[in-house]
Specification:
7 helices, mainly alpha, single chain, Rossmann fold, globular, 2 domains
Length: 140
Amino acid sequence: HTAGAETRYIEELKRDSLMKLPGRCQWLGYVPDERLSTAYGAMRIVVYPSKMITESGALLMALSHGKAVIASDLRAVREKRKLGALMTFKSVVDLRRKIKRLLKDGEARRELEEGARAYAEANAWEKVAEQHVELYEELL
């Protein structure tokens, strides 16, 4: 799922991936909410290469679905990395190496999936709401 408008760069990526990775990379375009769980369920790993957006619904959705995520090394993402919820990358070479590792190493992928689920559970809306209520009760 690619956020944002279709650009020439996206079109080049699509063409290259279809030629070099036939049957291994799908470009879905917009995915309606009711199909997101199915789409995430079909993914082995999720790559989040944004260099500008630090918090993303797509990134959090991937974690909530327990997916192994590789994301750009941004400040807001590092906290999740420290908690074992995802991997970060600093260069194209680093990204390539980590994608290959997660596709080949099922144990490493499972560890990230467990970390993603734990992060999502700890940060679920219900838990955050409970923490706010507890804080307000302490302050009153």
